[in-house]
Amino acid sequence: MAGGRQEKDLVHLNAIHVENVKKERRYQKLHTEFSINPYRKLHVLPDKPMCSKPPESLSEDTTYIDAYRRVRMAPSLKYPKPITESQEIGWFVNELPPQDRQDPRFNFPRRKTDITQLALFTKKRGN
Length: 127
What we know:
Structural class: mainly alpha
Radius of gyration: 36 Å
Strand content: under 5%
Order of helices and strands: HHHHH
Shape: elongated
């Protein structure tokens, strides 16, 4: 062939394939422990009505149930301090003090003045 390029035969192609497989196996990790993702919603279906298995024979996995409950908890119950900056807003929630309607500093009721009464009067008349 022209340009110094040689055609690859089956031996060279097999050697390239073996090298690729070795690279893949070097970075491949075998996972033998499988579990259900606790961050996804779980749709629990009951047994069939005519099921003959007694409920005692069904084993209960408490680790998954605990992980599921922990995921569904509010962040303030899961963690002692806020994790992100956006969680800092509203993390320490205290109840508001009782409202005192007699205190003029905090209570601003609507009041009628001469101008507002005139505006209401002209609006009712249709001018």
